[in-house]
Design brief:
Elements: H1 9-12, H2 19-22, E1 27-32, H3 36-42, H4 46-53, E2 57-62, E3 76-77, E4 87-88, H5 90-102, E5 109-119, H6 122-129, E6 133-138, H7 146-152, E7 155-158, H8 168-179, E8 213-214, E9 217-218, H9 228-246, H10 258-270
Helix pairs in contact: 3-8, 6-8, 9-10
The structure holds S-adenosylmethionine (SAM).
S-adenosylmethionine is lined by residues 113-116, 138-140, 142-143, 158-160, 162-167, 170.
């Protein structure tokens, strides 16, 4: 990974919201990985790339192989007790983590990306996005010697109930989700306010753009009406219904306010009492 944490006079305060960096509001994310370039490239484009250019996010990769000893710079060994696969050695990881910590005085939340971790949610992303520093550890092979995890890790995070071959994709997911929540990272057009899981935790409503008429269908009339109150009501209803249908695990009907109940009741009436009907406009 390219080190963009080294102060670069040209990057220090390019313009406008880049003052975030100068005021110390930029989040710093260090990643310990055998493939630091992977995460660097994943974080080079789009919203995240722009956030880095603006100094809202700084990143640095740390390769444990650079801290391994011997001609072969070994970073793994066979598991005690036998069995398949290899386990990442304590020392190269410990040295890489120590070097990363020492690179900045701000305290870092140290996170091991792991299928055994707590699931990454938008609420967790918000929590992480508010911190000054993250230090992400990516495993490979069968994982990391448990003693290192016990001694060095604040928390383990999983991006889903499946097993990846390494933690880099998972770390890239954290970097992306955290970076887009930094102040100034999103323009109005990309605002996170209406996104799924934000606010009261509902899924986002469907979106349409030109043309109005297409052989795949017509844009719902309400969105063309210019009636902002009706548009807001329609969008809210769509969010409610989508969440109910697609993610009933996130939907707590008993906690809905009066207005939401009315929207849901209206939708159910339209469905002829069939609460599992479609959400189409
Ligand atoms: N033996 C481990 C287990 O079953 O829990 C899986 C090791 S996995 C092949 C190698 C590395 O990929 C892990 O150390 C972890 O860093 C990363 N990884 C795999 N699945 C992940 C997931 N769902 N979320 C986050 N990281 C994951």
């Amino acid at each position: 990974m390219t080190s963009d944490t080294t102060p670069n006079p040209e990057d220090a305060a390019p313009a406008g919201d880049t003052q975030a960096s100068a005021r110390g509001r930029a989040i710093r994310i260090d990643v310990v990985s055998l493939f630091p370039d992977f995460i660097d490239q994943a974080a080079a484009v789009g919203v995240v790339g722009r956030a880095r250019e603006r100094g809202l996010l700084t990143m640095q990769g740390w390769n444990p192989r650079d801290y391994a000893e011997g001609n072969y710079r070994r970073v793994d060994d066979r598991p005690f007790g036998g069995g398949p696969g290899m386990v990442m050695l304590i020392e190269p990881l410990r040295a890489a983590l120590a070097a990363a910590r020492a690179a900045d005085p701000a305290p870092a939340r140290v996170i091991y990306m792991s299928p055994q971790g707590r699931p990454l949610t938008q609420a967790k992303v918000r929590e992480l996005a508010a911190l000054p520093r993250l230090l992400l550890l990516c495993g490979r092979y069968e994982g990391v010697d448990e003693r290192l995890l016990q001694a060095e890790i604040d928390e383990e995070l999983s991006i889903g109930d499946y097993v990846l071959s390494g933690g880099e994709l998972a770390a890239a997911v954290v970097v992306d989700a955290v970076a887009r929540l930094q102040d100034g990272a999103l323009g109005d057009a990309e605002s996170a306010v209406q996104d799924s899981f934000e606010g009261d935790g509902l899924l986002d409503c469907p979106h349409y753009t030109r043309p109005v008429e297409h052989d795949l269908g017509r844009v719902p009339d309400v969105l063309l009406s210019g009636n902002h109150a009706e548009i807001a009501k329609w969008r809210r209803q769509q969010s409610l219904v989508r969440t109910l249908e697609r993610r009933p695990d996130l939907f707590d009907e008993s906690s809905l306010g009066k207005a939401d109940r009315r929207l849901l009741a209206a939708w159910r009436a339209e469905q002829g009492g069939d609460a599992t009907g479609g959400t189409g406009g």
